[in-house]
Design brief:
heterotetramer; A: about 400 residues; two-stranded antiparallel ribbon; globular; D: about 250 residues; alpha/beta; 4-stranded antiparallel β-sheet; ATP hydrolysis activity (chain D); hydrolase (chain D)
Chain lengths: ~400, ~350, ~450, ~250
């Protein structure tokens, strides 16, 4: 169905179901319970999950398939966001022109940067992409302030031209049908679940992009990209020109990043220059590797993990901890709080660092492959062989 | 003219910091084939060795001075360093004053130890793993190291001054026949430059003139063959990692008086040091040093007003522009070898 | 019943998915049973404290958090009450706000506008925060202020010194207690002219982003009005760690004063570098060379160590002030945390009290009511003497401190001393001053 | 006129004359071996033939067209396939996928974006690939990871991949280097079979005399960068100059 084999179809359906049911799945704890701190089902974070999912899926088309490690993909995310906000400033708050423009502009940037950077391979390529992205960031933060609004980030002012604006428009919307920020809250007993229009738009796009990436992975083009990664010498002596293949992959992943950037700006009409900093480029690299580079679902998982830690763990403070461990005797409570404190709140970086090390040490190949290994171990030897067969015939699972 | 000479001095000074950090990084690349994102953190830990030593020397006991009050109006607790009470106020004070140079001795065993532990405990298991895994694990380690330092020392920079004798600046201009005050340069930065030159020279001499160095150089060129010769290259690589860590650490110790150390200073240098190493060419020690000085000098020139007024913002991007130009004209950087980290 | 938020064009008139549990839309919606965003439901009221907890400003963020926590205690009637006892308005009773116990949530801005907005949104969307307080940079303040305006909550801005926050980026839902670049210039110029003479030539090093530019423009205007000449203004990249190549040419430029329009790590490094070059030991144009740091903070001064000695700068507030309010605050902060509060801590503490007080006086948490109560509000007893929250741009006006690095500090907190308390009248400006032009306050947004 | 004509090729590296006045003509549908002691310039000549090195003077013509200055993929598209000293295959891919790629390249040229079609639907390509694998006796291994195969099988696969494109000239660079005897013999048999079944020209650079004399129809002996003699295997075997230059060295 849809040009997918059974296995891929199953995976697509699972992803789609997870995306659609996310408001329930991410809010498993009653609103007033102590565990509610771990709920992630509020619009902003759900949007970030899927948007960074798109970013990572796209990055994986380049890195996972061709092995070219770009350290400058955040530049495309940034120009995507700037394009969308500029459309808000020039036309109106309809998100569609902005998103289309952001994909196009990111694609053009990717053609230029990719054409130059792909003249080199390995770490030389990584550093070239890093250099381009850092130049973009540094200039956006300072000299290009008239275009990017520098430090503050590009935002919409009432004094902007907005040639197509109607007087009811105050926030991003889709053809006037629905505002991105509109949210329904469903109260079910002690639980509450948020259904946000913007989230669903992003989620649908994410599923579409995920579908597209499966198709690319399973296409002759995808096979050629894996051939690039595997052996460029043989590729060339087989009469294939590796460069346009890698450039195409680079541009596609740049456009994914542009789409993600456009969506970020559509959900929240502000584009900060930090989106282009090397740390942002590094983040998507980490997401992809953490989840499992070259696997279809890994990057999405990795993106979810990192964003979860950033947004949930950073908000747990000492007071919350005392609430949680209040049942313990005083001395013990303080001891436990003292220990845990280092890993939450301002210590969330530490948790992330430890997580990176744990995953790469104990689950080589990332969360997804590690998970598969564990499953295989549990299932025993026979299915072990089966599993190996399937991964071998479709190593880019 | 004077401005150009000044910027050359600045460039040499910046360059020596870049070169020192890049030297260790490229040693690890070249010998072990590992992408070490924790190298910046080693530099930072070096700087905090200086901070720690100065804190240790400043360990004090408190006496209450009834004549003064603290900010809450309570009697002031006056601190006296143990060192001062043991060695007398004058000698004690000068020991404290010389904390940073003393920290060189203090840091070498610590950094080599950290290097050994890192290599044996972690990096060793990643030689055969993809570069992506190396990046993830070393980046994770860098974060952990940072957070540990942040926990003990806070996020604020900690002033770590150079000894009093090195304060102020030296008037170069008068030597060259300029008017006084035209070309002045801080003593400590001159010390840093000289120190970097010594360290770089030592590392090169060590690799050039010792059997150990010969084996390591052979290992950098062709690891498998050296392994086949029955030489225990692993042990040597551990030592190399220790040396690389020590070089980064020493660069950090001496850098502490130039800019107050803070816990994320390593990350500030990380990207830059990668650029330096790659521009120099993967696996080339002279390349890394040359690129360090080249980028340092160009960066200094780009910050001159004359140049900034022609090309606004050029100092923001000069490093990257140079990196792009060099990598496009010389495929493997200044002196890179074929086949190192090209896939 | 569910109510749609489809806009007026509303092609799909709502046919709500009515279900037993389907309730009302929450925040960001056009209408609902609630009169405004995150209306407290009786179990208490939640304030959001959004400060940098990671990155270079983490220490500042920590201090802000401490102060905010203290403020919450005082509002809830715990502790000694701090500045509530000296505050000229007596609306607060120590029983929370409008009888609601005060709770708070915290978040990490990372000093990035994106992350700060994400964090603020999570407080508003998930935790039901009714007001956002704190922050440590102007970029973040403007970004979060814009968000709060859209979401319909009150924003109190923390440490933000750029003119834009209450200038071209001002918003009806946002208030700033902190002073700004213009005020720094206005307060510093006379003191500088006094201390160093009116015939001075200044060389500016300026951080190359919005705050740096407004700071530099303010300083240049104010000092030139005093008769100083500006020799040069050099923009330095944000990412710089070593400023030697910017400082080296200063001596030969004919300037005799160096103005460092830097903040945070930039300022610590540029000042340290400038002192390394021995600039202050030199005589230029027959005068002692001087360094000026327009915006000081205790933490930066601590980071720069002995390099701040003798360097003049300005501050919003300092713990060494001798008014009753300051004394009360320093006492309760010092007793709780064993250290004196920083000026950003003071700002965040005071803003929390002021917000609570405004709610009490307005009798509601409705942002529009609160904003109205804060607009044009005059009070005293929170440090800095008589203070005004101006209605036109939501900027706070009060005395500004001119500080100087102390020559012989007695302890680690004793790095700066107060040179002069510049009276409020001297730092006031018209709301339509060119440096603050553009942008409009807009209308307050209750969000519902 | 041979299918491959090398005329007056000279190549110097610094002071070293790597190739001096090389003239060589490979007849269509023949097996032509180039032998010579170490350092005779065999590899340099090969690199000139496949366009990797540009000679200082002279020309290399394939079927009337110059190969000099062309990119490897263009040379391949002209009909020259190359087998490497160490087998160059797509180690991360399965055997079947390895075989499909050259067939795609033959059909679609140097670059074509099939980004949304499914590989599984390319029935024709899969069929051809499986057919080729069958003729190599590798059909059972088609889902194996190619990197995990024995060296002999890798070589087999590589030769198969080259043949699947129906090249007119197959260049082999020491195809049995580093192989066990059994693998060497298998490879010789495979090449013989190819020679018998197809209209193909084979140029082989080899060290191993056993391989050379089993296969070659003509042999060129290189010494110090220049062709010493060119003749049939029988004549070469007894040629005094060859013994001197070649066997003498090994004695």
């Amino acid at each position: 169905m849809l040009g997918l084999n059974k296995h891929d179809m199953k995976m697509l359906l699972i992803v789609a179901a997870l995306a659609m049911l996310a408001p329930f799945l991410l809010n498993p704890f009653p609103t007033d319970s102590a565990m509610a701190q771990f709920n992630a089902g509020y619009p902003d974070l759900m949007q970030r999950f899927v948007i960074f999912g798109i970013f990572a899926i796209g990055f994986n088309i380049l890195f996972g398939l061709t092995g070219y490690l770009s350290f400058g993909h955040a530049a495309f995310l940034g120009v995507g966001s700037y394009s969308t906000v500029w459309m808000f400033k020039l036309l109106d708050y309809n998100i569609v022109p902005g998103i289309i423009l952001s994909v196009i502009v990111a694609g053009l940037f990717a053609v230029v940067i990719g054409y130059v950077s792909l003249r080199r391979s390995g770490i030389y390529f990584s550093i070239l992409t890093l250099a381009f992205a850092q130049m973009s960031f540094n200039l956006a933060y300072s000299v290009l302030t008239p275009i990017t609004n520098g430090e503050t980030g590009l935002q919409v002012y009432t004094s902007d031209p907005q040639y197509l604006i109607d007087d009811w428009e105050t926030v991003p919307h889709l053809f006037g049908l629905v505002e991105m920020r509109s949210t329904y809250t469903m109260e079910l007993g002690a639980w509450s679940f948020d259904f946000n229009a913007g989230y669903y738009l992003c989620a649908v796009l994410m599923v579409l992009m995920f579908y597209l990436s499966i198709r690319i992975f399973r296409s002759p083009f995808g096979m050629m990209l894996r051939a690039v990664k595997s052996n460029q010498t043989r590729m060339n002596y087989t009469g294939l020109n590796a460069k346009p293949y890698t450039l195409a992959a680079f541009v596609i992943s740049g456009m994914y990043a542009g789409l993600a950037g456009g969506l970020l700006a559509s959900m929240d009409p502000l584009a900060g220059a930090e989106r282009m900093q090397w740390t942002a480029s590094g983040e998507v690299v980490l997401m992809t590797i953490l989840g499992g580079a070259g696997t279809l679902i890994g990057p999405v998982v990795g993106a979810g993990f990192i964003k979860y830690f950033e947004n949930i763990f950073s908000k747990i403070n000492e007071n919350v901890l005392h609430e949680w461990f209040g049942f313990l005797p005083d001395g013990l409570e303080n001891a436990v709080v003292w220990v845990v404190e280092h890993f939450v709140g301002s210590g969330w970086h530490l948790t992330l660092g430890v997580l990176f090390m744990m995953v790469v040490i104990f689950l080589p190949g990332g969360l997804v492959e590690g998970g598969q290994r564990i499953m295989r171990m549990l299932r025993g030897k026979k299915s072990d062989n089966d599993a190996e067969k399937t991964t071998q015939s479709t190593p880019a699972e | 003219m004077d401005a150009v000479i000044l910027q050359i001095l600045n460039g040499l000074d910046k360059g020596s910091a870049y070169a020192l950090i890049a030297l260790g990084l490229t040693l690890i690349f070249g010998t072990l084939g590992v992408v070490n994102f924790a190298h910046g953190a080693l530099f930072m830990i070096g700087a905090f060795c200086a901070v720690s030593l100065s804190k240790i020397l400043n360990l004090s006991f408190e006496t209450i001075d009834e004549t003064q009050t603290d900010f809450l109006g309570n009697p002031l607790k006056v601190k006296t360093a143990y060192i001062e009470s043991w060695f007398g106020p004058e000698l004690g004070a000068s020991i404290i004053d010389w904390a940073v140079p003393l920290a060189i001795l203090f840091s070498i065993p610590i950094m080599i130890g950290i290097g050994f532990i890192m290599e044996r405990g972690l990096i060793k298991h990643f030689y055969k793993r993809p570069h992506a895994d190396q990046i993830l694990v070393t980046f994770g380690l860098a974060i952990v190291m940072q957070e540990i330092i942040k926990h003990y020392y806070g996020a604020n920079p900690i002033p770590t001054p150079a000894p009093d004798v090195f304060k102020g600046s030296f008037d170069f201009g008068t030597l060259l026949g300029f008017d006084p005050n035209v070309i002045i340069y801080p003593y400590w930065r001159l010390v840093y430059f000289a120190f970097a030159a010594v360290i770089i020279g030592t590392v090169f001499a060590f690799l050039q003139f010792t059997t150990f160095g010969m084996v390591v150089r052979a290992g950098m060129a062709d690891r498998e063959t050296v392994g086949l010769l029955g030489i225990n290259i692993d042990k040597r690589f551990t030592i190399m990692f220790g040396i690389a860590a020590a070089v980064a650490g020493l660069a950090g110790v001496m850098y502490a008086p130039i800019n107050s150390p803070n816990y994320h200073m390593g990350m500030d240098f990380l990207v830059l040091s990668f650029v330096v190493v790659v521009v120099g060419g993967m696996g080339s020690l002279p390349g890394a040093v040359a690129a360090g000085f080249l980028l340092g000098i160009l960066e200094s020139f780009a910050s001159m007003n004359e140049i900034k007024s022609l090309l606004p913002g050029i100092d923001q991007i000069i490093i990257y522009v140079v990196a792009i130009i060099i990598l496009l004209t010389r495929p493997r950087g200044l002196m890179g070898r074929k086949g190192v980290m090209e896939d | 019943m569910s109510k749609s938020n489809f806009t007026r064009r509303g092609l799909l008139k709502t046919s709500a998915i009515a279900g037993a549990g389907v309730a009302m839309p929450t925040i960001f919606t056009a209408s609902s049973a609630a009169a405004y965003t995150n209306e407290p439901t009786g179990s208490g009221v939640t304030l959001g404290f959004n400060v940098p907890q990671t990155g270079p400003y983490a220490e500042e963020g920590m201090d802000e958090l401490r102060a905010q926590e203290l403020a919450v205690q005082h509002l809830n009637g715990e502790g000694d009450g701090g500045m509530m006892n000296t505050f000229s308005s007596k609306a607060l009773k120590g029983n929370g706000i409008l009888g609601n116990k005060v709770k708070f949530v915290t978040g990490d801005t990372q000093t990035k506008s994106d992350a700060a907005r994400a964090s603020a949104k999570s407080m508003i969307e998930k935790d039901g925060a009714i007001m956002i307080n704190g922050g440590s940079s102007s970029g973040v303040a403007v970004a979060v202020q814009g968000l709060c305006q859209e979401a319909g909550v009150i924003f109190m801005a923390g440490l933000t010194h750029s003119n834009d926050t209450t200038g071209k980026d001002k918003k009806a839902n946002g208030f700033r207690h902190f002073f700004n670049a213009y005020m720094s210039g206005a307060a510093l110029a006379p003191v500088l002219a006094n201390a160093y003479g009116k015939d001075r030539r200044a060389y500016h090093l300026t951080a190359d982003y919005t705050w740096g530019w407004t700071q530099q423009a303010s300083m240049q205007a104010a000092t030139e009005a005093m008769g100083w000449e500006t020799v040069n203004n050099v923009l330095t990249p944000l990412a710089s760690t070593d400023f030697s190549s910017y400082i080296a040419p200063v001596l030969n430029s004919g300037a005799d004063v160096l103005v460092l329009n830097h903040y945070g790590g930039n300022m610590v490094n540029s000042l340290t570098n400038a002192v390394q070059f021995g600039l202050q030991d030199k005589m230029v144009n027959g005068k002692q060379f001087e360094i000026v740091v327009p915006l000081y903070s205790e933490l930066m001064a601590a980071g720069a160590g002995e390099n701040v000695q003798g360097v003049i700068g300005s501050m919003n507030w300092n713990w060494q002030l001798q008014d009753e309010g300051t004394k009360a605050f320093v006492k309760s902060f010092g007793e709780k945390y064993g250290r004196p509060p920083s000026n950003s801590a003071h700002t965040c503490y005071v803003q929390t009290l002021l917000y609570a007080d405004a709610c009490e006086r307005a009798g509601t948490f409705n942002p529009c009511g609160v904003a109205e109560a804060l607009e044009g509000f005059e009070f005293d007893g929170l440090g800095n003497g008589p203070t005004l929250y101006r209605a036109d741009d939501h900027q706070c006006f009060k005395d500004v401190l001119v500080m100087k690095g102390k020559e012989n500090p007695t302890n680690q907190y004793d790095t700066l001393e107060i040179v002069e308390v510049t009276p409020r009248a001297q730092v006031e400006y018209a709301p339509d001053h060119p440096m603050f032009a553009g942008g409009e306050l807009g209308k307050c947004n209750p969000g519902a | 006129m041979g299918i491959l004509e090398v005329k007056n090729v000279n190549k110097r590296f610094g002071g070293l004359q790597a190739l001096g006045d090389v003239n060589l003509s490979v007849e269509e549908n023949s097996v032509h071996a180039i032998i010579g002691p170490n350092g005779a310039g065999k590899s340099t000549l090969l690199n000139v033939l496949i366009g990797k090195l540009i000679p200082d003077t002279g020309s290399v013509m394939f079927d009337g067209q110059s190969v000099l200055g062309r990119k490897p993929f263009e040379i391949c598209q002209m009909g020259i396939s190359r087998v490497f000293q160490t087998p160059e295959i797509f180690g991360d891919l399965t055997v079947l996928e390895n075989m499909m790629i050259p067939i795609f390249a033959k059909r679609d040229g140097a670059f074509r974006m099939h980004a949304v079609e499914s590989t599984a639907n390319e029935k024709e390509i899969i069929e051809q690939a499986e057919h080729m694998l069958e003729s190599l006796n590798m059909a059972d291994q088609r889902h194996d990871h190619s990197a995990s195969m024995s060296r002999g099988n890798k070589r087999r696969l590589e030769i198969g991949m080259c043949l699947s494109q129906n090249p007119r000239l197959l260049l082999l660079d020491e195809p049995t280097a580093g192989m066990a005897r059994a693998d060497t013999n298998n490879t010789i048999d495979l090449l013989k079979q190819i020679k018998d079944e197809r209209d193909i020209t084979i140029a082989i650079i080899e060290h191993d005399m056993h391989v050379v004399f089993s296969l070659a129809e003509r042999i060129t002996v290189l010494a110090q960068g220049s062709p010493l003699v060119e003749d049939t295997p029988d004549k070469i075997r007894g040629h005094p100059k060859v013994r001197e230059a070649y066997l003498g060295e090994s004695a």
